[in-house]
Amino acid sequence: MSDILRELLCVAEKAANIARACRQQEALFQLLIEEKKEGEKNKKFTVDFKTLADVLVQEVIKQNMENKFPGLGKKISGEESNEFTNDLGEKIIFRLCSSEAETVELLSRVLNGNKVASEALAKVVHQDVSCIDPSLDLIRINIPQNILGIWVDPIDSTYQYIKGSADIKPNQGIFPCGLQCVTILIGVYDIQTGMPVMGVINQPFVSQDPTTLRWKGQYYWGLSYMETNIHSLQLPIPKGNGSETLSQRNEDTNAEAESHGFSAVISTSEKETIKAALLRVCGDGVFRAAGAGYKSLCVVQGLVDIYIFSEDTTFKWDSCAAHAILRAMGGGMVDLKECLERNPAKGLDLPQLVYHVANEGASGVDQWANKGGLIAYRSRKQLEMFLSLLTQNLGPADTNT
């Protein structure tokens, strides 16, 4: 099973290289800007460049996993379609080609014959990436491949990715916006139970070299299956593949957080009733940040205790990766609405999010929405205490989010 996880880390790093290339290579960046200007129209194709970057990443992940583990690529689902349509109604299906030259040719068709941009991007797409993580050798568990499904969000927080802000200052380690909020999310789940079993989060833009302006990233992973729980934050995270070591956070962080009350990260679009209740529960410990993946990562890193979101606009591909890592750490991700309606005195299990069943009566992407909102947490005890306080500070009508 460590082989699958290792390959997921490699394809996530390749995806991060693609994301960085699209921001750093001048030809690609200029094309990106041209496509996003108001009032400008592409000569032939109606192409949103962020979608092209997303599709490239998603297709690379699918093809690489299929090559290494036949049959698994077909069980990968994600946010993006790989179809592009021009103004004449002509359709181009993007698939990863077997050779770099073929990929250049296909990308050139999509990018209006921009050969320089196509060649630069194809080079990154076909570049081999190795992943050296000795902690993966500690995994001694076998999970049948035929029970695995995979959710992928190729580039989460696409607005921040396109905007490209590199000079945002963090607030107690949490970035409210900027490239640091961009994540690549790969979550593996059990198709029988719907529970997440493996997760990889790659943060492509962690630190920027002031001289070369090149970005370095960081990855995180976790595995939770039966009695096995292991994650990358248990050991120093190895340097390599464009990633830098993150200092190991110790348990004093949680103890300090408890002594100062709860902390939570939220979306800027959170409901006013929830924000008001959180202000009473957390005081100054409420932080705003972009990207569902990044907000979940803040919980994984121990920067906050809770990520809460009451709306139904996150999806399975947004939550599965972090959910698996949090489970490996002793936490999880639950349905907010069901939690607020639950009676703790009856000893009911927490309503963990599941990933194998579509929402009844929904269509399109709404089939896979987290309809009741969500709460991500590292400690069940902390979650129970938090929910008790939150419920006390919400009116009866507000508990029906």
From TrEMBL:
It is an enzyme of class 3 (hydrolase). Belongs to the inositol monophosphatase superfamily. Mg(2+)-dependent phosphatase that catalyzes the hydrolysis of the 1-position phosphate from inositol 1,4-bisphosphate and inositol 1,3,4-trisphosphate and participates in inositol phosphate metabolism. GO terms for biological process: phosphatidylinositol phosphate biosynthetic process. Keywords: Hydrolase, Lithium, Magnesium, Metal-binding, Phosphoprotein. Gene3D superfamilies: 3.40.190.80, Fructose-1,6-Bisphosphatase, subunit A, domain 1 (3.30.540.10), Inositol Polyphosphate 1-phosphatase, domain 1 (4.10.460.10). Its cofactor is Mg(2+). Monomer. The gene is INPP1. Pathway: Signal transduction; phosphatidylinositol signaling pathway. This is Inositol polyphosphate 1-phosphatase. PANTHER family: 3'(2'),5'-BISPHOSPHATE NUCLEOTIDASE 1, INOSITOL POLYPHOSPHATE 1-PHOSPHATASE. Mg(2+) binds at E79, D153, I155, D156, D318. GO terms for molecular function: inositol-1,4-bisphosphate 1-phosphatase activity; metal ion binding. It catalyses: 1D-myo-inositol 1,4-bisphosphate + H2O = 1D-myo-inositol 4-phosphate + phosphate; 1D-myo-inositol 1,3,4-trisphosphate + H2O = 1D-myo-inositol 3,4-bisphosphate + phosphate. Coiled coil: none annotated. Signal peptide: none annotated. Its EC number is 3.1.3.57.
